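Appendix C: a fully annotated inverse folding record. The material below is reproduced so that readers can follow the format used throughout the book. The structure is listed first as tokens, followed by the designed sequence.
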């Protein structure tokens, strides 16, 4: 496995590949089984697998956890090696943003998909995500790129960006990987105490039940109320800050209601437990 920090080294590596297929897994490191499932799928479907590890400052607001974001690089490299990754690209911020963050040309995400859910509480977040992903796509020029469906809004926005900019890259979404308790794996879970993990896991169970209620014919309003009352009141909003709990069309993220009830939908939730923000969907 090769590891490189510079665009030049990445270019040299790519020149040796001569048209063979490249599967790309962009990450911010702190790799867990969710990331490994993306790498394994990339390994199955492509001749070469490239992983990037880059904690992208452009997608964090000043009040977020950029400086505290976990960066266990050696451990991540060991995991990549075990998964037979061919190249890990670990640029420093100056390599990606040589003139700093202020002077950069940014991607504007599709408003209909970005101005809801996480886009409301994290203004500018998706501009930062799409900008870095487009830059990484241009550097790596993969045939396929792999993203986890836990970040479903991000996945949809990247898919639409690829269509809108006519990029010849297949975007593959991989199922959420969960702990036995139901808690969706996330690099931010390591900030949680066991008690908070339990609260987060219970919330997932409630989402699942709420989803089943809607599918069995209960109204969306009643089902969302069921989730709120059963779990949120149990733990108290003092411990758990609810950012959103919404049912939305799985394709367009339009609010799901009785008028478009024949369309696939998802339930989305975001909570804050102490300083840790967690998202999930079913
Ligand atoms: O999902 C992530 O880890 C990040 O948002 C991504 C796609 C690597 C861009 O920084």
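Designed amino acids, in order:
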């Amino acid at each position: 496995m090769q590891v490189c920090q510079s665009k030049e080294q990445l270019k040299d590596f790519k020149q040796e590949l001569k048209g063979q297929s490249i599967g790309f897994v962009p990450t911010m490191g702190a790799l867990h089984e969710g990331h490994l499932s993306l790498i394994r799928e990339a390994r199955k479907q492509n001749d070469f697998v490239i992983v990037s590890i880059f904690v992208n400052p452009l997608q964090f607001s000043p009040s977020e956890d950029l400086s505290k974001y976990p960066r266990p690089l050696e451990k991540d490299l060991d995991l990549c090696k075990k998964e037979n990754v061919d190249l890990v690209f670990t640029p420093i911020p100056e390599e990606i943003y040589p003139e700093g963050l202020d002077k950069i040309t940014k991607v504007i995400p599709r408003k209909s998909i970005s101005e809801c859910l996480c886009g409301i509480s994290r203004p500018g977040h998706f501009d930062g995500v799409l900008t870095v992903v487009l830059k990484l796509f241009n550097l790596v020029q993969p045939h396929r790129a792999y993203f986890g469906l836990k970040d479903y809004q991000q996945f949809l926005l990247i898919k639409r960006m690829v269509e809108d900019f006519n990029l010849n890259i297949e975007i593959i979404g991989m199922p959420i990987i969960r702990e036995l308790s139901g808690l969706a794996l996330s690099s931010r879970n390591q900030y949680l105490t066991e008690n908070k993990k339990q609260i987060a896991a219970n919330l997932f169970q409630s989402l699942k039940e709420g989803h089943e209620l809607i599918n069995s014919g209960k109204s969306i309003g009643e089902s969302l109320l069921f989730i709120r009352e059963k779990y949120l009141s149990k733990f108290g909003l003092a411990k758990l800050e609810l950012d959103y709990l919404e049912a939305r069309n799985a394709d367009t993220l339009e609010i799901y209601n009785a008028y478009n009830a024949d369309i696939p939908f998802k339930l989305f939730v975001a909570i804050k437990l102490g300083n840790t923000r967690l998202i999930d969907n079913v």
